[in-house]
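User: Hi! I'm working on a homework problem where we have to compare a predicted structure to a textbook description. Could you give me the structure for the chain below?
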Amino acid sequence: MPDETTAVQLQTATAVEEESQVIVFCHYRATGPDQLIRIWSTTVLLDRSSAHESKLLFTDNVAVAPQWMHVPNGSTARFTLIFSGLPRSCTSFDLIERIPEPGGFEVRNIGRNKTDVYEVEFL
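Assistant: Happy to help. Predicted structure tokens:
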């Protein structure tokens, strides 16, 4: 049976893992006139080796559905998405915007790193 110090360390490690977050810096380049973008709250990170889904917790500098954000032709929208943490065993994941229409944001097979901070480009 673990001693009291070991039990506290285990609880702390579990709490840190449960409270971890994944930060994704996103870039969307408008290649035509009247580009409109938004992010749905149903956007998730999917661990490629388990059934784990990290939920979207926070967005910055992007419209959230049902609102839209205009991105002028030739410019790049830069925005940030923050998700709940991935399991320690995760080595790669997908960013999937689950929406009831075509055209959702999607980036597949993102390699996991030690910082859990990523940059992605939506084409």
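For your comparison, note the following. The chain has a mean pLDDT of 88. The chain has one helix and nine strands. Good luck with the assignment!
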